[in-house]
Amino acid sequence: MNPAETPNHENSDNPFLTLNYEPALESLGDDYYDEVVAAEFPQHILRWRNDALLPCLGLDTQAVTDEDFITAFGKFQGRKPLLALRYHGYQFGEYNSKLGDGRGFLYGQVRATNGELYDFGTKGSGTTPYSRGGDGMLTLKGGVREILAAEALHCLGVRTSRCLTMIETGLPLWRGDEPSPTRSSVMVRMSSSHIRFGTFERLHFFRRPDLSKKLLDHVIEHYYRHLLGEKDKYALFYAELVKRVAKLVAQWMAAGFCHAVLNTDNMSITGESFDYGPYAFIPTYDPYFTAAYFDYYRRYCYSHQPSICKLNLEMLQEPLKAIIDPADLEAGLANFNEYYHATYRSLMLKKLGFEELSYSEADELLHLTIKFLQDSQIGYHEFFYEMARTFSPKWRDEPGLVLNTSNIVPASGTSPIFDDWCVLYHKILNYFDLDHLDTISRTLTNQNPQTALLRPLIESVWEPIFQADNWQPFYELIKKIQSGK
Ligand code: AMP
Ligand code: MG
């Protein structure tokens, strides 16, 4: 990557400017957005290009230059209109009617090679009518952290937005939670949609069921297409959204991820995970682990995430009641718990090596695993990685051999819970044929990478950037994450 300032590039040659953008949201009319102009920055240094996403856009990695990224997503040349989307939301339980894209806009929408419509949404691209006195900017560290979260979650199988690019923009920013002045960046997120629960909440606030219905038709047409011909498509949409959100939060929980700010303006109507601010991966299994320092009442702590997502879905019923029978909404939401638990159970069993486990001991194994992780405060990710690293067919021979070559677990006979866990794991292994053990070993390896994006690791790649503008550790970490190691 060339960190030098780059000359203007011919727009007509820029593959990002000749993509086939679809005015899907724009065509809904200006009740849903404001046209804005991007900030002009003193500097443009390309810091990240996510080449893994280019083939999804039908682009040849080799054919896209660093200058193409900068011209399109740092200078925003040749693309109009740029739309700040309007939305409201419940923030920490309080309704906020002053929200909206305050430091970003919808750059454009493109159909990827998989046939799905994606948004390019900016973060840190300047003020808008919704900036509420903020500077409209994103710190460089904020950009670095969001890139890492999205890649890590994606590689753990979580449905998430990803970052297409990040450009350092050369402004000094003042923030209470970073040593200031701190560096600035603009980031472009590729997501399935930027329509939020809060987009509907705003239309309800202004008593515009007509606009809600138009938006819901748009959502179904683009993101729930298979429901288009259905007589009760609206009820089916909500029931499916409930399932998508339940699945997503189960994925976060199994991945040991704490989103930190589950306000309804950060909940996507497509059930995709996005917007990573003060998130954290849990170091150990602590139900009350809270990632945002300003979350004084632990509202969005790790173990509250399922109930908070359910509550957000319930609050979304208010604006949807104008379109969908309340009885249908209730019936849709009633599936949340069962769907969440089934998905979480299946994902956790996979982390324990089992693609399928129909034996009655499965629930007991999960229960003991969580109890052991919570009581021992052993590293959450480390434990599963150690299972993958040290797995041996010998574990079938006797319980005392389970995990006995790992030095992170208690020695046999020193922890009753761990011993019970070993007895049960050993027993379950004996339900399988010897030649199935390879499959278990492979599942353990695939589900449990060594690299866990814990805060100290993020800080360890940020530090060289901060101290010496050395980006190598950051790039190496992404490479490791992307290779599933
Ligand atoms: P977030 O906590 O990132 O989901 O942001 C909540 C709201 O605050 C959104 O409407 C953002 O656009 C807005 N916002 C956050 N940071 C800034 C900033 N530096 N300048 C302007 N608006 C901001
Ligand atoms: Mg947000």
UniProtKB/TrEMBL annotation:
GO terms for molecular function: AMPylase activity; ATP binding; magnesium ion binding; manganese ion binding. InterPro entries: SelO. Mg(2+) binds at N266, D275. Keywords: ATP-binding, Magnesium, Manganese, Metal-binding, Nucleotide-binding, Nucleotidyltransferase, Transferase. The active site is at D265. It comes from the Bacteria. HAMAP family: SelO. Belongs to the SELO family. This is Protein nucleotidyltransferase YdiU. It comes from Halotia branconii CENA392.
